Amino acid sequence: MKKRIDIIASQPGAYKAMSALEGYLKVSSLNPIHKELIKIRASQINGCAYCINMHTRDARKLGETEQRIYLLNAWRETDLYTEEERAILALTEEVTNIKNSVSDETYQKAAELFDSTYLSEIIMAIVTINSWNRLAITSQKELD
After folding, report:
1. Which of 138, 144, 131 is nearest to 4 (CA)?
2. How many helices (H) and strands (E) does the chain have?
3. What one-character DSSP code corresponds to residue 74?
4. What is the residue extent of each domain of the chain?
5. Is the pLDDT of residue 21 over 80?
6. Domain 13-139 in CATH 1.10.10.10
């Protein structure tokens, strides 16, 4: 297979802009575990091995359990996740699979559980990881 484009080298300004979104998330009020659940679940849906590897490792460093990481793609079938986490995961799935839209039910549940600032941060985290997934998959970023 031919080597694909290195976006960082080719478009450092664009990479800097993407990194600024990540910087915004680092200083947001989002719970670190919520951030990693978003990143892992979106990366699972998108099939981004690089990001799944990175964010499961990051989640473990934060104290996330192996069981919750392994069951994340089947979160609806277990009671291991809080009501807030379930709302975040549902929203993550619908924003990631945007062709089907975000249902009023999913959005309303999240809006009931989170204030507008936190909900905005959740949405921005979902949008950001989906962008990173697309860059990694398109450039065929390999695992470290």
Report:
1. 138
2. 8, 0
3. G
4. 13-139
5. yes
6. no
